[in-house]
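User: Okay, second chain of the day. Same drill as before: sequence in, structure tokens out.
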Amino acid sequence: MTGVELFSAGAEGCRAVRIVYKKKVWHLSAADVIKAPNGELPTCWEDTPHQPTWDMPHAFQAPHAAIAVNSAMGSFAQSTPDAVVQDMMAGLDAAHSAASNATKAEPGKKRFGIKRDINPPGTPKSATPSADSGIRKPDFPNAGECVSANGRRFVARPMVEPGFHLCATLPEFQSLWLSRLLPEGKRPTASSIQVAESALMASVFLQPEFRASNGNAFVIFARRDAFFFAGYKNGEPVLWLKCPSAGGTDAMRATVMKTLGVDESLVDSILNESLIDPRPAIEPFARPIFAQLELSLAYLATKHSLKLDKAFLMGMGPGASYLSAYAEESLKLKLVSPDTFNGLVIDKGVKVADSPSYLVALGAAIAGAEVSA
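Assistant: Same drill. Structure tokens below.
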């Protein structure tokens, strides 16, 4: 299985990995930054015909590929049935407004291989357009079912805890564009399309310490634009949260540069335990993160009986040691920062620089291969 992350902000090329299951062990057979596909992710149906084809380098031509996409029009969040319906309605309303201002296809006319009919056969009466809104009112889907309306696709899956749902959304024209990105008849075939944040959740499943804890863990995922929290019970997600009131690693770097008055070229060396102490810059930045961390740990303890004295810090890179020291001082919580590829056998000749940046690509491959904790 090949896992690849597309359209990561500020990244040159795409992070890609290939994992192979041999003799009951997962191997990392390739990991590299590969050339991004020509073209940009479409923002409307009219852009869909501009379809590039993307040939993977030979090392990544596995039978299947899991694509994790960073899309401003997609989302991934913990939710409830009512909130999912509200999100769906907001998406439908936006799609309807956009369609009203653009050139519309005639009812029943095929566009880009998809028949777009106002009233598809079998449409329930509750889903027909109303005279007031002009859009369909969706019914909440059953577990694992997809609902597609006005070019927007929603998947909701009830998890272990009753009332706990994870909601992933991605415009259908983007899903279509991504599914046609890899040329037919050649390896790999796009077998999984994921929102980048959802790929993060699976990236820890092969970690030895995660497995040793029987999948009971709290994980902090550090990304350039945000920090995300995930709680697991017996290997199943029971908490997913984007940390409010805090930026990601880019914001932390900017804070260090401004507070200490250093150039961008020196930030990484300062965060990697240099002679300059960056804690005066990091602690104010980390304070809202640890405040939310404390609340999340309390939630897991009271709601799920998970009393944890350590957490995983994934994808951090420079600055991880200072955040770990601060967490142990303020919360008495040990932060473990394992290498991204722990739990895999690294094949001969595979050399990876900046392994934390491959977290999404690895998670996409693990999820696409349906590897469980």
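The longest helix spans residues 279-304.

User: Thanks, on to the next one.
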